[in-house]
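Morning F.,

Quick status update on the modeling queue. The single chain you submitted on Monday has been processed. Sequence for confirmation:
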Amino acid sequence: MMNDAIDDAMGDEDDEDESDAIVSQVLDELGLNVSDELSNLPSTGGSLSVAGGKKVEPQAALADADADLEERLNNLRRD
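Structure tokens below.
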């Protein structure tokens, strides 16, 4: 009896199936088929590595941004 009361308050189990059907219908109307798109993704093979063993050099723009940020922080500490 307690479980029935909780089920009535929380909703029916059929609601989940119904909501899944509605979501699938909306995705179909939008022309999206998630399972087809996900199955077409390439697999990574379980690990990532840099091709040819090259070291990745930091980009100059990021280095300049870091230097600028460091300078601004140092100026704030002095004030």
